[in-house]
Amino acid sequence: ILCTSNFDSDSKAEDPLTQEPAGSFPSLWDTPAEAKDVFKFRITDTGTSDGMVTKVTNIRIKPDGGNTADWTDAIAGVKLNDGAISIASTNITDGYIDININPGDLNVADGTSTDITMSIWLTNTGNLVDGSILDFRIDYDDHGFTAGSNGSQFANIFGSGDISGNNQTIQVTATELGFSICPASAHVNMD
User: Fold this and answer.
1) CA torsion sign, 134 to 138 to 143 to 147?
2) Is the pLDDT of residue 3 over 60?
3) CA terminus-to-terminus distance, the chain
4) What is the pTM of this model?
5) CA-CA distance, 124 to 6, in Å (whole number)?
6) What is the pLDDT of residues 23-71, one digit of tens each?
């Protein structure tokens, strides 16, 4: 017996109607409740012929050209659609973020599109660099998106260009002041 699948292989990620605007990201936003929307994209099941949903199981986000931040030092966690999409696990590296999703937790119905907003919160390890930039993209020809085997699959290439976000600039706010050498005395209001 030979089993073959007749699932479409042309689902894709593409530009959203509007991208998150460039902005600043306060360093004190370091909990899931303080996550900031930083990147948007759309996932489309083209509905060619199989009548099946696309069951998204992995989303890969990469640094775009404006990125200067070290992601492992800066990003503590990720949410999708303000936590409405359940994430099984997240692997944050300096070269990409893999967002693993349990099959069935992010389904795109046959012939439809779903808009996704990615939010992140920052680390509180003291390794943030003031003025560093977080910039996100989906690589159209090396995207790393996967779908469950019992539905529509992703195309090998998404269109003709990357899906790019806008710069998010980290603004470090000091919470304490420390001295490595303490002065013997200090004078107030002396000219």
Assistant:
1) positive
2) no
3) 94
4) 0.89
5) 48
6) 999 999 999 999 999 999 999 999 999 999 999 999 999 999 999 999 9
**62/110 Cα distance (integer angstroms):** 27
DSSP track, the chain: ----------BEEE--SSPPPPEEEETT--SGGG-EEEEEEEEE----SS---EEEEEEEEEE-TT--S-HHHHEEEEEEGGGTS--SEEEE-SS-EEEE--TTSSEE-TT-EEEEEEEEEE--SS---TT-EE-EEE-TTS---EE-SSS--B-SS-TTS-EE---EEEE--------SS--S---SS--
- Amino acid occupying residue 63: P
